[in-house]
Write a structure and sequence with these properties.
The chain has 62 residues and is an all-beta fold. It contains no helices and 5 strands. The termini are far apart.
Length: 62
């Protein structure tokens, strides 16, 4: 399971489960207990919400 909290406020490159590549800064981390989907989630560039199951890989860049 991904530990998404470690990526908050960091520049990242993400490959989604659909194969889309997203690069940007993680601007928000939401723990599972605060997410309706009952899983951790992040927001990239203040606009792209990703639940943990939608992330295939994530790495810190820069």
């Amino acid at each position: 399971m991904l530990k998404l909290s470690q990526y908050e406020n960091k520049p990242v490159s993400i490959v989604t489960s659909d194969g889309e590549i997203i690069a940007g800064k993680v601007t928000l981390f939401t723990p599972a207990k605060d997410n309706d989907e009952n899983e951790d989630a992040i927001v990239v560039n203040n606009s792209i919400w990703l639940d943990a199951h939608e992330i295939k890989t994530i790495e810190i860049t820069g």
